[in-house]
Amino acid sequence: PDYIKDVEFISNELYETIRNEFREEIKNEKKENESGDARAIKRLLDPVVNIGLDDITGVIQHIISETKNKMDDGDNTEIIKLMVASLFSIFKMNEDRKGNLSTIEKIPLIARDGSIVYSEDLYFGKEYNCGTKTELIFEGVFENNQYLASAADYGIQDNEETIISFFTWLNVNHFGKYLMLVKDFDRWNGDGF
User: Fold this and answer.
1) How many CA atoms lie within 13 A of 52 on its CB side?
2) For all residues of the chain together, what is the average pLDDT?
């Protein structure tokens, strides 16, 4: 998003040039347990320039954190849309992603009713094929502020499978959440529900 000024990416060509020009220095800087050159390059260039690692999770955390800082008491939907567009481009370019961003909590997203709700508290609804049954099951239980807004509301376009995968990656729920409750019947007994 344009409100984040301190993140830039170097091109693959520049990275490869650095690797080639500093091959010996990288070999000397590289530790035994490192598989790639990125960490050695970072250590080598740290005195001159602040280079982050090639771990995209740190960049994603920074984007989400800066978005939260930018949000105010007014209408934040445009800020959320910018964040989502940025994360969507990262999602599409980073095919090595695994699972979801479960290590990142409280990702602000837009609910069907236009309110801002954290991703882990949202569900796919009738706007998505995977959410039609969820909405049918929870009809009268869930409110519009518990369903994810449509992809059109976010201004993102792609096939539905990719969009669903993206929002799942952001920790949106497909079905209800499960919570184990233990009910004590007397002093020594418990029964898990």
Assistant:
1) 14
2) 84
Residue 183 backbone dihedrals phi, psi, to 5 degrees: -105, 125
Crossing angle of helices 38-45 and 12-21, in 10° steps, is: 70
Secondary structure of residue 179 in the 3-state scheme: coil
DSSP 161: H
How many Å apart are CA 2 and CA 143, to the nearest integer? Answer: 33
pLDDT band, residue 122 (cuts 50/70/90):
very high
Q: How many residues does the chain have?
A: 193
For residue 89, give both structure tokens.
Answer: 């481009």
Tell me the pTM.
Answer: 0.73
For the packed helices 160-169 and 77-93, what is the interaxial angle rounded to 10 degrees?
Answer: 110
